[in-house]
Input
Amino acid sequence: MAKPPKPTRASPARLIFGDLWEYDPAPETADPKLRARYELFINGEFVRPKAGKYFDSINPATERKLAEIALAGPADVDAAYRAATGAFKAWAALPGRERGKYLFRIARLLQDRAREFAVAETLDGGKPIKESRDFDVPMAAAHFFYHAGWADKLEYVAPGRTVAPVGVVGQVIPWNFPLLMLAWKLAPALAMGNCVVLKPAETTSITALKLAEILQDAGLPPGVVNFVTGAAATGAAVMGHPAAAKVAFTGSTEVGKAIMRQLAGTDRRMTMELGGKAANIVFDDAPLDQAVEGIVNGIFFNQGHVCCAGSRLLVQEGVAERVIAKLKARIRMLRVGDPLDKNTDLGAINSKAQLSTIRRLVAAGVREGATIYQPPVKLPEKGYYYPPTLFTHVTQSHRVAREEIFGPVLAILTFRTVDEAIEKANNTAYGLSAGVWTDKGSRILRMSTELKAGVVWANTFNRFDPASPFGGYKESGFGREGGRQGLLDYTSHA
Ligand code: NDP
Output
């Protein structure tokens, strides 16, 4: 007699995690060792600003004041450039291997204090602790290590040519990766033998000033690195100072253009790392679950405050419905809230001003006829928060498809053919990054050749390495950071 079939357990249609239990809070508790007041860092010392003015740095997760930061005026910027100019000759004359030792020391000291820096970065900027702990701080240390390794091999930066530092460099950085952008700017400049005057963003100065403590502990000669804190006027003074042989800027395209206008007609060398509106392109043969993880990482990493964020999803028509359904299910699981909680996926928006920019552009998306989706999330009552947001039925003329929102907002468009995907992806003023998801190697090669973007990720997104040059095309800027190419931008070679 035939055996009766074994009863099988019906598999659930989908696994629901978020509804089954409540997470206990898991706050990171390391002491960020903040000072109540931070001074300027000029000529190796913390000094009061000449006009005696300070501004508050706010924790965007709580809207509470974290510390007072010195406001640098033109006389302070002048003093910083004097210190840098005074230090340049001796610093440039050091053998590369000696400069490398300082960079190694800075990297190791940063590693020693990694947890403290991660907490400080999260408090000041609002990013989730798991990102500052696992990405920002280790990557910043990696940049110092990498460039320390270059310092005694500079003859290979431009083989067959004589390389030399450019002199004193003025640098201005944004608030989305405060410590990491600082490392991207400082490490190659120092390895090559340049001296630096740097301005961090107004809302996120603290980790730069904590790094100044490390520079002191590393015994870096006074004047080699100087930090002047403040807002746009301080930035303009740093960029426009006549003692700067080169300026390096990361921030919005609008301010980048203003700086280029300000410096037009001078012989100042420049590198600009500006905005982006990257296309993350999913073909119908892509591993869809993997692609969904890449899409989520591409747009929700650091609340979408990422110049190379995959803020436009281009998905092939045949799989669009499935991808969008998977994406909606996935973002329902994202945890938005206290950035210091180790379970948090999306922390606080960096500032009140940025939150209103995001709200304004999302309202424009709704007004222009795109369909909005936001999962049900309970946002904290205090602090600047925004839920993960998707827009479908987006056309290329919608503002959400054209403008850099710099927030957790994804615009979804569809395409049918490879040519259409390329056409739509390149139909933007920007050209910083792009992503391609497909099973076909030949298609990856074609896409990476035809996409006008400084970096093209294949079957992954938001991967960084100090050895890999990063930078833009078109209105995303010019010049490269990282790798040999990044060093060339801090070199004069004959
Ligand atoms: P900004 O470009 O204004 O800020 C970047 C840095 O430049 C900050 O340190 C800022 O100082 C400084 N700065 C501002 N004005 C001048 C100036 N005239 N001369 C020299 N330096 C200046 O970006 P925002 O913070 O205003 O953000 C606005 C938008 O820019 C965002 O919504 C986003 O779309 C985009 N953005 C893009 C970034 C990117 O990496 N692609 C990074 C940051 C912003 P301070 O902040 O202290 O005033």
The chain has 15 helices and 20 strands. The CA atoms of residues 291 and 437 lie 6 Å apart. The chain has two domains: 37-274+473-493, 279-458.
